[in-house]
Amino acid sequence: MKILLVExxxxxxxxxxYLLEEEGFESLVCASFAQALETIxxxxxxxxxxxxxxxxxxxxxxxxxxxxxxxxPVIMLTAMDSEVNVVMGLDLGADDYITKPFRVRExxxxxxxxxxxxxxxxxxxxxxxxxxxxxxxxxxRVTKGDEDLQLTALEYKLLLVFANYPGRVFSRNQLxxxxxxxxxxxxxxxxxxxxxxxxxxxxxxxxxxxKLILTVRGLGYKSG
Length: 224
Fold this sequence. Notes:
Elements: E1 2-6, H1 10-22, E2 26-30, H2 33-42, E3 47-51, E4 53-54, E5 57-58, H3 59-69, E6 74-78, H4 83-91, E7 96-99, H5 104-121, E8 127-130, E9 133-136, E10 141-144, E11 147-149, H6 153-164, H7 172-179, H8 189-203, E12 213-216, E13 220-223
């Protein structure tokens, strides 16, 4: 399993990455808010360890972004053991917090405890979010507000491509490669145009002015 570690103290990072590897975890290490923000947008991970105080931002803001991305457990790392800081993290959706300095075995125990309920539900990434559209991969269910959206297999897989890679530009050929095996349907450039149009009609507030799936002139498409 992969853990996002956001921490600017090199000594703590060195010790934690070694410990996590010994326990069978893979680490994604970020030393700043900006680096963590890009990683959250582009990488998948199963749990996040977030330092509250970063040189260029707050771990609380990162916690909100991670929780908006999907059902991913978050543990806050803080040197501030005041009640207000603990409550703030938990109110923002954090699953747990641990105060520095901490005992390594206690941290591993808290990581496993935080992961346990998510494992029971399926995977930590069973839910994907694109704007106000929520995709439950375990149930292959797509909702927008209180409405269930009825997508074809191709439309659903196309939506997953954009939701899994936020901000990434896909050429038509790359989208064809992602979709070619769905139902044995014949696909070409024109087919991609048609399915993008149909998908926008189902997920966008205004298909003529899309916000979730954007056209990048001369290149292809990307999620908004």
